[in-house]
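I wish you would study the pair of lines that follows with an eye to the fold:

===
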Amino acid sequence: MNNKKIGIIIIALAVFAVLSSGCTLPSAGCGNAACDAGETAQSCPADCIAGQGEEPPMPSGQQNGLPPELPF
């Protein structure tokens, strides 16, 4: 066998092994060890720590994340 055929056989066996192993990707939702969109520390404390997964409050006087205009 030449090297190209051996490489193709190895790749095919690796793909088959992964697909037949039964491993799956973690699904979105509470309990998957990731603070997904829509999860907060209150709704899913198992995944989120306080302040993660939520929009932080704007500091006083700021709008749209911009500081207030300075009077000149």
